[in-house]
Amino acid sequence: NIKYLQLEVIMKILFKNITALNKDEYLELIKFHGKKNNLKYYSYTAVMGLILIIGMSYQIILKNYVSLILLALIFIGFLAYRFIEPYRKSEKEIKGEKIQGNLINTYIFYDENFVVKNKYGKDTLKYRKLFKVYENTNAFYLYINKEDVFIMEKDKFEIGNSEDFKEFISKKIGYKFKS
What we know:
Layout: H1 2-10, E1 15-20, H2 23-62, H3 65-95, H4 97-100, E2 104-109, E3 113-118, E4 121-126, E5 132-135, E6 139-143, E7 149-153, E8 157-159, H5 162-173, E9 177-178
Parallel strand pairs: 5-9
Antiparallel strand pairs: 1-2, 1-8, 2-3, 3-4, 5-6, 6-7
């Protein structure tokens, strides 16, 4: 820990942001994530549904009713999963400790990496490890992969500001930044 404190003193903090994860911010992320992925998600659902419908039609022609019933059950299960699972997952997250407990993340950005700290621990990440960074009107979303994201509210910078951060992060990650 002493080494870390000494290193932190040597490395210049470029940006610092403290964001409390709350239900409103999480719902905003879900809405943003949905807009970003809706076409791909629903296209896949439509194509798979169409394949199952064609399979069921073929079973009707063949008068193979056992296979028809099996494909119909798969079709119903698939649609239920595709439309119900996202809502179930969101409800579970909203009721979880991170959101209900207003988890507070501290983001500290240095030239070569950034640190995310909260009551669960600390992670140091290189910028190249970021999958994508998106900006909306109120926040930056730092995606570690397609599903895991850190939410940074724009008005919570203690060192630096959102406009300078936008310029900094877009230079660091290039095409991975989406405004």
